[in-house]
Amino acid sequence: MSEVSKESNNSQTFEAQQISENVEAGEQKLPTVDVSADYEASKEFSVSEIDRTSAGAQAAAAATKPKFDIPAPKEIAKPADSSSKPEDFRSMAKEVKPAGAPGNVTDDLVEKAIDLGTPGS
To answer: Which runs of consecutive H residues, i.e. helices, occur in the chain?
Structure first.
């Protein structure tokens, strides 16, 4: 199995190695980076020319417009019931899922299953 060297010099390219040797020898100066000037210059490229006009706003609105009309939500008035009676909650549950809906297991169905017994008996 080959060993992996942990030295960062092995991962440098030939050009990077040449530049570092030339800088150490005094033959070449290190390049300087002005981050704040580069940041200010990058701001010019963040907004295109068309976006600085009203045509850009119209193009953005057309590009992001939904293809189909979306209906506005309707307000449904439902008064709050503060009685906390269990019968009220049962009636609300029956409104949401009435009895006899597919997949609904009733007590009669369970009794019938018990009467028939289990498979294999």
So the answer is: 14-25, 35-46, 54-64, 86-96, 107-116
pTM: 0.25
pLDDT in tens, 36-85: 998 988 887 877 778 778 888 888 888 898 888 888 888 888 777 667 78
CA 117 vs CA 11, 68, 104, 108, 114: distances in Å: 74, 55, 20, 14, 5
The vertex-116 CA angle with 110 and 118, nearest 5°, equals 90
Residues 6+ apart with CB under 8 A from 29: 23
For the chain, the straight-line distance linking the first and the last C-alpha, in angstroms and rounded, comes to 64
Q: State how far the Cα of 18 lies from the Cα of 69, in Å rounded to an integer.
A: 63
